[in-house]
Amino acid sequence: MNIVNKAAILDPCSLCATSARPLLERASRSFAHCPRCDLIFVPRVCHLDAEAQRARYAKHRNSADDAGYVAMLRRPVALLRQYHPAARRVLDYGCGREQILVGLLRREGYEAVGYDPLYGSDADMSSPFDAVVAVESMEHFPEPGGELQRIRGLLAPGGCLVVMTALHRGPDTIKDWWYARDPTHVSFYSAATMTYIAEAFGFRILFTDNKRNLVLQAGEG
């Protein structure tokens, strides 16, 4: 395992701002690990710029005509139905260029809008949402602490955050983990990280499969 460069050592955790520990260096980027919240992250100096990210996403074959992809998106919709059946106004946070999940949510009867910092969106975020869905987007957050604070502020009291992101199994597993090979993936969470997020941002974990799917409920206060 190779130690990361000195610049990475100085990067604080992008979730909780604790001093992070160097983890490993692979290809053209480094990884660091936070001993407090268990986040594994890529230092900002190694992140792709917006143009390179869009070029990478353009290679994805996500389509409304892809039955497998649409089936994957139905999982968070089902969790939303189960854990917040009264939800109506929903934000897809990190909706991508095609906004496929937004379309699916609308067909299911939700008042859904999408937000994505790379592609712009038609999202009216002036009033609270009953739910925010972050499907395969949290791993792209360059500063998850700031993004989660924003999401928490967008939710109505008792609203739900529905998450899909692959959870890591410990810092020793990152080296051979396929999920860490995508250069646009820069933040990696564990079950312990999600517990930290719930406590730090005022959520209660309603559901987790301890693999990639979670539902967190915002407090009433």
Strand order of the largest sheet: 5-4-6-7-10-9
Tell me the CATH architecture. 3-Layer(aba) Sandwich
Derived structural class: alpha/beta
**Overall mean confidence score, pLDDT:** 90
Number of helices: 6
> What is the helix content?
25-40%
- Distance between the terminal alpha carbons, to the nearest Å? 45 Å
Radius of gyration: 17 Å
Number of domains: 1
Do you know the CATH topology? Answer: Rossmann fold
CATH superfamily descriptor: Vaccinia Virus protein VP39
Estimated share of beta-strand residues: 15-25%
Q: Tell me, briefly, the overall form.
A: globular
List segments where confidence is low: pLDDT < 50 over at least 5 consecutive residues.
Answer: none
DSSP strand tally: 10
Q: What is the oligomer described by this structure?
A: single chain
CATH structural class: Alpha Beta
Give a nutshell description of this structure.
The protein is an alpha/beta fold and 221 residues long. It has helices at residues 6-9, 50-57, 67-83, 100-107, 144-154, 191-201, and strands at 21-26, 29-33, 40-41, 89-93, 111-115, 129-135, 155-164, 187-188, 203-208, 213-218.
